[in-house]
Amino acid sequence: MPTAYQPTSPLRQRFRPLWWLAISYALIGALTRIVLLFMAGGGVPHNPLYWAYAFGVGLSYDLIAFVYLAWPLMLYLWLAPQRIYTSRLGQWLLYVGGAVLLFGLLFVAASELVFWGEFGTRFNFIAVDYLVYTTEVIGNIRESYPLGTWISLLALATLVVVWLSRRGLQAVDGGSTFLQRSKVVLVWLLITVVTAVGIKGTFKDRTDNAYVNELSGNGVYEFFAAFRSSHLDYSRFYRTLPEDEAFKRVRELVKTPEATYVSDDPHDLTREIRHAGPEKHLNVVLISVESLSADFLSEFADKQRGNITPNLDALSDKSMFFENLYANGTRTVRGLEALSLSVPPTPGDSIVKAHNNENLFSAANIFNDRGYQSDFVYGGYGYFDNMNYFFSHNGYRAVDRNDIAKGETIHHENVWGVADEDLYTLALKQMDEAHAQGKPFFLHIMTTSNHRPFTVPANRVPQKNGTREAAVAYTDWSIADFLKRAQDKPYFDDTIFVITADHCASSAGRTSVPINRYHIPLWIYSPKHIPPQRVTRQMAQVDIIPTVMGLLNFSYRSRFFGADIFQLEPGRERAFPATYEKLGYLHGDVLTVLEPQRKLEQIKPNFSNGDAVPNTPVDQTQVDDATAYYQVAAYLFKHGQMVKRADDSKPVN
Question: 60, 133, 330, 446: most buried by Cβ count inside 10 Å?
């Protein structure tokens, strides 16, 4: 074993492995940032100032993260008695411990590259969220990537690095005392506390390019920052208005011509929606398609991709097709929340996953009051993201993979669930049963096939299996197949098919809320009842259910934040594109974004590429409207005022 240079100070000798780990981690951080910079492509302009910022600020965050990550090594260097530490066993413990730490850091770095490829960001709340569902997430990784090969290569790289840099892991101590080492640990603890309290992940967000801001962060630090912000209390972290003013403003914003308030209580949003004439108790099948971005369709797509949605493109001319619809968020639960509750997204956790989310005023309640059978049908296991619990406690019957009997044909399945065609078979079974019982039905179907690993049944589409193109093409094929099978059913003529997306396929962009990554399609298809037309007005995901109920001529009590787009006066359109912490309010060509620490950004977005320029001067009315919407929604849920009331079922004449 080579003789290492021995510093004169025993304390420096003892803690020298910390330098080895710090240098290793700094190099891993820099290399990760270089790869991510290339992965960002044109998202980061060729500007040396951007690069200097990303790598300079990024190194600072790497060092802060290192303070936390070094604690296992620090504890060993502190507590190991000198006799054991300098022994042969102590040396091997240091080598093995260093190798384990290094492998972990390399594994995290590789995971970040995968995460960036999927979401265009460093680790964030999505990574925290997924950590709960290890079966699905690990299964997804195993089905999507050669995990065994990657782990073997990382292990080999770890051994090579440890061998080449073993001088930095020399177990040398010329006589440090426990008290001396304790002083070092005390200083380290003080640094840990100061950085944990005084440094925020948002401090890096100082450029006008979201990719640069992301590159300036550290994945491990961002992960734990997101973990701490998973339960953001709106009133504590965001801009607010006086409570009475916020409610007064929202009452004005959600009021539509066909609605009247049931009381003068300034905090009560309950309206009676009235339509002349009889209601149409038609069946409704709502399909929320996994990650169906509008730009997958030919009319919105990059022409180089080719036509991968011929059936949906053709359906646009046979349906009421909405061209200008924007999703609530970037996660499935946000889409489910918008489609079932018609509310703006709350910061942190979705209501679907929050505590005390039972017996809320939902779309199913309104259908159930009219004798409908309301089902949520999912091709995977509905414990994921708390879906089964949420829907089964809010007026729906939860139907999932467990309801497919043994022996029934499954054409394909992966970790997320059965293939969409098998999901639609399950849905048709629920529709048949409801019809046989003489009940109209409301089905909310959530698909999974358009999700990584993008594996689909053989011989369905010409695209290469395991690619996004194949998954989108299969999504298109399976919807057409479902409608074709439904046409043979006796209830087809009296069924409205509502097809939309839960969110887009990507959330990455050069701005914090790139508006093009929220653009989703909507078809309302019912040949006997809905004449084809194009609707170009701006529309929010929360408006879908109120619009469908308007088409059904329903008169009902509502506390929805969404509106029937055909009742909403032109010029009042708005949408709520948001992340888990950045809350967007789109009105016309202005996007207002509310952020923690009561920060505010107002921009004019480019609807084609997601870029934006500042909106100057700031439109204060839109700032107050955005604040009121989000503040009131968060207040109502927090204080248990989104629940269904007994008089919500009262007929409206």
Answer: 330
Number of C-beta neighbours around residue 127 at 10 A: 20
What is the average pLDDT across 152-167?
94
State how far the Cα of 541 lies from the Cα of 507, in Å rounded to an integer: 16
DSSP H helical ranges for 449-491: 468-487
DSSP letters for 190-240: HHHHHHHHH--GGGG--SS-HHHHHHTS-HHHHHHHHHHTTT--HHHHS--
Residue with tokens 């990719």: 211
Q: How confident is the model at residue 146 (pLDDT cuts 50, 70, 90)?
A: confident
Contact (CB, 8 A) for 234 and 246: no
* Predicted model pTM: 0.85
Residue pair 15/183 in contact by the 8 Å Cβ criterion: no
The identity of residue 97, as a single letter, is G
Per-residue pLDDT at 274: 97
* Cα separation, 555 vs 46, whole angstroms: 57
Long-range (24+ apart) CB contacts under 8 A made by 390-394 are 390/336, 390/351, 390/352, 390/353, 390/357, 391/340, 391/364, 391/444, 393/357, 393/358, 393/359, 394/340, 394/341, 394/357, 394/358, 394/359, 394/360, 394/362, 394/364, 394/365
pLDDT of residue 1: 40
For residue 458, pLDDT over 90 is answered with yes
Eight-state DSSP code of residue 345: P
Q: At 161, is the pLDDT very low, low, confident or very high (cuts 50, 70, 90)? A: very high
Question: β-pairing, 320-326 with 539-540?
Answer: parallel
Q: What does each C-alpha distance from 131 to 126, 136, 148 come to in angstroms?
A: 9, 10, 20
In a 13 Å sphere around the CA of 224, the CA atoms on its Cβ side amount to: 12
Q: Token digits for 18? A: 């910390």
Q: Which helix (H) or strand (E) holds 604?
A: strand 599-605
Half-sphere exposure of 289 (CA within 13 A, CB side): 29
Band (302; pLDDT cuts 50, 70, 90): low
| 473 backbone dihedrals φ, ψ, rounded to 5° | -60, -40
Query: What is d(CA 373, CA 496) in angstroms, rounded to the nearest whole number?
Result: 15
Look at the block and give the residue holding tokens 């990784």: 141
